[in-house]
Amino acid sequence: MRVKGIAVLGSTGSIGCNTLRVVEALGEPFRIVALAARRNVAKLSEQIVRHRPLLVSVEDERCAEELRACLRVLGSTVEPRLLIGEQGLIEVATHEEASCVVAATVGAVGLVPTLRALEAGKRVALANKETLVMAGELVTRTARRSGAELLPIDSEHNALHQCLRGEDRAEVRRLILTASGGPFRACDREAMERATVEEAMRHPTWNMGTKVTIDSATLMNKGLEVIEAHWLFGFDADQIDVLIHPESVVHSMIELIDGSVIAQMGITDMRHAIQYALTYPQRLACTLPRLDLTRIGMLRFERPDVERFPSLTLAYRALRTGGTMPAVMNAANEEAVNAFLQGRLKLTEIARIVARVMERHAARAASSLDEILAADAWARRRATEEIGALGCNASAPV
Q1: Do 169 and 254 lie in a common domain?
Q2: How much helix, strand and coil, in percent to the nearest 5, is found in the chain?
Q3: What is the domain range of residue 242?
Q4: Mean pLDDT of all residues in the chain?
Q5: Whole-angstrom distance, CA of residue 34 vs CA of residue 21
Q6: Do 310 and 166 lie in a common domain?
Q7: What tens digit of pLDDT does each residue of 58-81 get?
Q8: Angle in degrees, CA 291, 292, 297, rounded to 5
Q9: Phi/psi of residue 312, each to 5°?
Q10: Is residue 292 part of a domain?
């Protein structure tokens, strides 16, 4: 049987680690051929010893030296080719023996490597939300031209992909993305104003990375997913709804024009979605626990409170505006989330910064990578200015 080579961008993060677990559980013909990480060289060195990739990339030369030292301490006999920076990410994403690239980096850094993978005709299993938010038109156009497959790993979009299998898109009325509601679903505005980073990191159902968890606490994560769903499946903003579903059992749904609703359900474990993306169109046996609805007992659904969670409204606005606006929104949010993590912003001020940056941006066409990256850079500069101004004027109106 022909080897199915897997390259992983962001191998030491939550999705990356789970991808390696899935590949190990699947066994032959799946094999890890290339890994890219940023600075977690201790974990990366363990992955290298276990999976023996041919190529590895880290953030800079200092990380490369630390990785070599870690491998020596482990007594590793594995000597993969070692690269650094964006060029390293690109070479991992385009490795000749990789038939599938798992794009699991966090933030805008994943855009260019993902584009290069698609240009090379690779199947891309996408977990990086920012890639489609920033450059949905460019990414999907690139995939069409090369014939590359773009399969979502996000549990919600993976669920929609499964629900849409075999359905005539003209017979689908709307997509319904579900959201747990995050740690502040039942909190009032005052409690959210006082929220600490530790409190924001206490996601009720999923174990995710820092950035994604904070986005979940503000519901920006769901807003990014609305934009993703538009580009992945071709539905307009008015055809994409969000429902709060605290149990996180129904990962997403579609409603057909006759009123029927199809839902995809499962336990809260990303390995289901990862395996689906790696093995599609086949379904292979999985060793994970099965969903037991009798133990759950009740499934609840609520409409999101956009007064307490304005980030969701901002994302819909960005999608409807189009052009460079989603890239600007995404960049401003990344900067604001970093400021919150550093103690320079309140949680509720993240959306305020994003809104201010969006208000000051005149959206342009986003048909080229240069245009998108220029908008991203402008938004980061502007967000940094707004964060500084807010810090100097703590009494500014909400």
Answers
A1: yes
A2: 50, 15, 35
A3: 155-268+303-320
A4: 93
A5: 15
A6: yes
A7: 999 999 999 999 999 999 988 899
A8: 125
A9: -65, -40
A10: no
